[in-house]
Specification:
By secondary structure, this protein is an alpha+beta fold. The chain contains 5 helices and 14 strands. Helices cover 23% and strands 34% of the residues.
Length: 197
């Protein structure tokens, strides 16, 4: 039987650990190393969103995958590939390295995490009171999907494919071009013939 940890035990272990891990419902899961394409796409979408926020002078900031977010429903902690917080960060009472108020969360999908990111993780993220939009970015084809919270139990889904397309991020009133997200990403597949991860 896998050992169960408390949130406090996880924070203590994570502070001393050489490798990042996520805390999910009492279990500690080692965060896998990113491949270069994953890292490049994460950085590119962060840059594109940051440029738009600065251009429009919005009181919001983009954060990289080094910052943890608290997930109330599962008493858990995750490292999203990116997130946006508007106004000031709100920190968890037990750690100044864990935020509690993202409005937008980004995950770049990989073969090993795509089911988890699309289902269980999204379910958990929906328990964050400030959370309004979930952005999934495919790694091997130029495809982005957004889930935007229009009402308490109503989510609008937008899905675009192709380097000539743009996607609207409603929570921060930002439109981004897929050609900018996938800039210098080589050997992208197609929807009918996706490249392997």
């Amino acid at each position: 039987m896998e050992q169960k940890y408390t949130f406090e035990e996880y924070l203590e272990l994570e502070e001393k650990a050489e490798y990042r891990s996520e805390f999910w419902n009492g279990e500690i899961k080692l965060k896998k190393d990113e491949v270069p394409t994953h890292s490049k796409i994460s950085a590119r979408i962060g840059t594109v969103i940051s440029n738009d926020l600065n251009r429009e002078n919005k009181d919001c900031s983009i954060y990289s995958s080094n910052l943890k977010v608290f997930i109330p429903y599962f008493n858990s902690v995750s490292y999203p590939d990116g997130m946006v917080i508007c106004n000031d960060e709100e920190l968890h009472e037990k750690s100044n390295a864990v935020v509690t108020n993202p409005c937008l969360i980004i995950e770049v999908l990989s073969e090993s995490t795509k089911e988890y990111d699309s289902n269980a993780k999204f379910e958990g993220y929906r328990s964050i009171p400030s959370f309004k939009e979930y952005v999934l970015v495919w790694q091997t084809i130029p495809k982005v999907q957004s889930w935007y919270k229009e009402d308490e139990d109503l989510w609008r889904i937008s899905s675009v494919f192709g380097l000539d397309k743009t996607i609207q991020l409603y929570s921060i009133d930002c439109e981004i071009a897929l050609k900018d997200i996938y800039k210098r990403v080589k050997d992208l597949g197609t929807e009918d013939n996706p490249k392997a991860f």
